[in-house]
């Protein structure tokens, strides 16, 4: 989490570059921060490495949401419509990307203690977890996405803001809670 925070703060310093006042899209930054934390804890990689997976899953969530708003016709999801084909291709690409992450992690034989490595170690010692199950668990980690972590990050920034920058706390708090 520290590495993710330092990365975000250094990015903000680059944007600032001696300017007196500058604007940051806090929503986007907190989203990227939470995604980076999830990637590091679950897979030992950064958000940039898993960025495509996050983007695809967000698109997939949007497509599913749109499908839920339509009238349900049994079997319609099996018809090769434009939307269904896109959803199938997204699912296939996510599977492929996650498989690459798993294979890359297996090849490095790292001793780091992130969740994927722990699952792979369990697979070596006990042949209970299959490759498909590991990929499905990875999907769940990525799908658990940053939206669940954003409220906590907002609260942390808001409370830290009051202690560090008392004059600006009203402005920052009102911006964070929009």
Automatic annotation (TrEMBL):
The keyword Iron applies. It is found in: Membrane. One of its GO terms (cellular component) is membrane. It comes from the Eukaryota. One of its GO terms (molecular function) is heme binding. One of its GO terms (biological process) is lipid metabolic process. It holds the Pfam family p450. SUPFAM superfamilies: Cytochrome P450 (SSF48264). Keywords: Heme, Iron, Membrane, Metal-binding, Monooxygenase, Oxidoreductase, Transmembrane, Transmembrane helix. The keyword Heme applies. PANTHER family: CYTOCHROME P450 FAMILY MEMBER (PTHR24282), CYTOCHROME P450-RELATED (PTHR24282:SF211). Belongs to the cytochrome P450 family. This is Uncharacterized protein. It comes from Vanilla planifolia (Vanilla). The lineage of its organism: Eukaryota, Viridiplantae, Streptophyta, Embryophyta, Tracheophyta.
């Amino acid at each position: 989490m520290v590495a993710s925070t330092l990365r975000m703060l250094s990015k903000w310093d680059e944007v600032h570059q001696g300017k007196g006042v500058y604007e940051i899209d806090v929503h986007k930054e907190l989203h990227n921060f939470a995604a980076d934390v999830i990637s590091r804890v679950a897979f030992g990689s950064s958000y940039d490495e898993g960025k495509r997976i996050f983007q695809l899953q967000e698109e997939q969530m949007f497509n599913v949401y749109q499908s839920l708003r339509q009238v349900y016709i049994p079997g319609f999801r099996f018809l090769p419509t434009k939307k269904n084909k896109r959803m199938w291709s997204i699912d296939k690409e996510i599977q492929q990307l996650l498989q690459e992450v798993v294979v890359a992690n297996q090849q490095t034989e790292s001793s780091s203690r992130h969740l994927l490595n722990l699952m792979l170690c369990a697979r070596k010692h006990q042949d209970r977890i299959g490759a498909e199950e590991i990929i499905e668990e990875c999907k769940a980690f990525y799908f658990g996405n940053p939206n669940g972590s954003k409220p906590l990050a907002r609260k942390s920034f808001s409370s830290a803001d009051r202690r560090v920058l008392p004059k600006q706390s009203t402005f920052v708090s009102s911006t964070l809670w929009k």
